[in-house]
Design brief:
By secondary structure, the protein is of the alpha/beta class. It contains ten helices and eight strands. The structure holds phosphoenolpyruvate.
Amino acid sequence: MSKYLIAGNWKMNTNLDEAKKITDELHGYKDFDSEVEMLICPPFTHIGFLSELVDLSRVSLGAQNVHYEPKGAYTGEISNEMLLSVGCEYVIIGHSERRSYFNETNELINKKVVNSLNAGLRVILCIGETLEDRESGNTNKVLEEQLTKGLLGVEETINLKIAYEPVWAIGTGKTATSEQISETHKFISNFLNLRFGDNIIKILYGGSMNAENAKDILSISNVNGGLIGGASLKPESFLSIYNSAIELC
Ligand code: PEP
């Protein structure tokens, strides 16, 4: 199993040509290391095309969302089975943008987590507190609730990852301090240990990670990778973050 997972969340960015260009640059990287897994999560429309383009043992592909039903009358939705059929291995579930703009609740997120794991996808469950939560001293309470409800009924953790993303640090240029990251990842790790026993679940940090701060963040204990938004659209920055992880192995 790799030591770090470096994952890019492209959000609703790139047309197909742009996506192919970024993917080509990442895929051509000379210094791939099996200790560090590289994952990109482009828009749904590109996944099938990109899986034809890459060696999936070098660059893994993930989606940014999924519906929990396998098929049916759910206009506009995409199922786990559809993702698997185009070479998609991972899915991000519960990103704060989905929670806030699309009203995704912990209950809905839990259905997606359970069904994606059952379908055989690897799941990155995103959790994180708002600035208001942090300032009112409620960070751990909010995270505990997101974890407890989001992971209800989950027993098998081999395909599960958690991304801790303070909402106030996403796309804002603000990163949590090393102390905040360290304390919070420790809290999440303790929760997972209690909930699952001897756990091997990777905990990624997300929130304005970039080429400059990646090494410091990735060196914090219980940080097992990054979920990267803005910087993942720039191959040079994303590869520099990837390389920081290699240097820490
Ligand atoms: C994200 O969207 O998950 C994210 C961390 O974005 P950014 O790196 O741009 O803050």
